Prior knowledge:
The protein is α+β, with helices and mostly antiparallel strands.
Amino acid sequence: MGIFHKKEDRWALCKRMTQPVVATPKSVQDSVPIYRVAQNGVFEIEKNTGEDHLFDKAYHIEDVNFATKDNEEKTRLLLDYCETLNSLQTGTKIVIANHNRNLEDIRQNVFLRKQGSTEIEREISAEYNQNMEEKLVNKMSGLNQVKYLVVTCRKKTFGEANVFFSQLENHLTLSFKKLGSDLRPLDGVERLKSLHAIYRMGSETEFASDWGSLTTGTFKGNICPMGIKRCSKDGKDYLKIDGKYVCVLSVKKGGWPIKISDQFMSGLSNLPFHTLIAIDIAPIPQDVAMKRLVKNLDNVEMKIQKQQEIRNKNKQWSSEITYEVRHEKDMIERSIDQMNNNGQKLFHAQMLVAVYADSEEELFTRVDTVIQNGEGNLLTFTPYCVQQVEAFNTAMPTGAREVNLLTRTLFTNALAGFAPFYVQELYQEGGLFYGVNKLSKKLLVGSRKKLLNGNGWVFGVPGSGKSFDVKMEMGQVYCGTRDDIIVVDPQNEYFVIAEELGGQVINLSSTTKNHVNPLDVPEHVENTGAFIAEKSEFVLDIFKKIVGGEIRSTAKSWVDKAVRHMYQEHFLAEGADKVSPTMHDLKRTLLSFGEREPDDLALSLDMFTEGSLNLFAHQMNVKTENRFLVYGLRDLGSELRPLAMLVMIEAIRSRIAYNQKMGKVTWVYVDEAHELTGEAYTAKALERLWKDDVV
């Protein structure tokens, strides 16, 4: 009998409760379920008695776009999550907290407020801000959902606990990375801040964010509320925490479903009000679980034998055992098979949901909403009776377990149904507004500047809003920053926008009055040798375009010689004689050599200097330094188009390089990009710009 008693102890030991720091709390601080804290985020949950006692550590879980995956991808992710659950060897808690979100901070970080703006910029900014405000006022925007993983261990000292968590952390980080998530350990300040947000909802700005201030006096005094009052109405218990009303619900014994929808957790955690959801699990060692199942099977076999003996005694030879007993035996045999053949592990589990409200009436309305949400998934929630404070402490992102409703055992695959993943949010301070997440209804705010490579493509069928999406981003860049914008416009549709904003339009065509000098010299050239070398290579590309292919090596030498001679004269000139060379100057320099090959090269330039395609043979008459620059390509003929593309790409590359030296960001938008990729040179140039991360 002693052996069986020991086995039962091991089963019960897995789900034991933690010892409260103060047996009978006399103050709010006494009820905080933490004994001591360390700056690295490891908390001592129970008093140090010289024996093994409880420590915990919390991690922030980055969400995964689970809801947008197809069934095959969801299955693969859940299988990976099952592997993560199976690897757990200690008490674990997954907590989903809907904290307050400071909408004013969002307005300060996202809304367009630029000093010294023009009238039109102020008008555009006001339109953008109004649009964002309309999206911001929905209830979900005021909630900041944070997901925590809390793991525990029983050790004698902080040092031993640190070693344990360090080893476990490496494994967990890799496991969550495989899921597409990021697991980030929380330090002491971050953990206390999360508890402060739960205890003092609405007073988040009062949190002291440095460790020294938090540990001056007692850390509990810096996070706990002024008061916690136990209340009851119509048989429903709840709490009043400062000015908030809180009710903690739990799943009733026998109120768990046979199976759960993968939509349940997302539906429950995304209710439009403040909630705190905790899934508390305790893994059961395989040998303990198996022995328990075998013992239960033996008990059922004994029931069957007794039933059969009674039937035989009553001469009921043909009657079978009752359905209940047959079903119980079948379930136990299936469970044994799951553990032996399907790699399943058994867990004790309990689920708690804390609901917040500003009034008693609102609280009970929200409690009913949670109960109805559960009933829709065959889960029976009920307000926790009498021990609301203890249940609230258990729901927190700590290792404390002050109530024990671990009456349901779940296999790994069943527990995976409560996976906390739903959808990733995009919110980067200082970013641009990109719309609203269609699932969570929260603002999408991103900053390309914070990415390793901020370049991107916008894909979509005709009429799907590609241009509108780009123009929305472009307007924010222009009104919210001092960055430069360059648009390559094959359809000339951005001309009106540029003109309204005081930008510069360069309409590339044989009849245009806009002239771009491909040989123009910037006002400041730091390294003349490097500049001449770049221009020499560029002019060689021009000749390749003109002749429609490669030129001979001797011709390349003549071109290089002409370019060097032309620019050396320019840099030696002073005063009125110091003007940028043009294609005319290049032609004259080639003719000055008096040789047949450079003469032939000069002759090939004739159509682009003296002829009808002399667009690029004049001095620059447009302000390419304007911060909003549009190159129109619609009216280009087939003969001029290759050369125009080449000149435009070179001008953009030079502008980007100059801006980089000046510490300025350049945004280059290429509309109808397939038109540029049709040309080998421009396609390669775009690829180079993409890889160099200069767009």
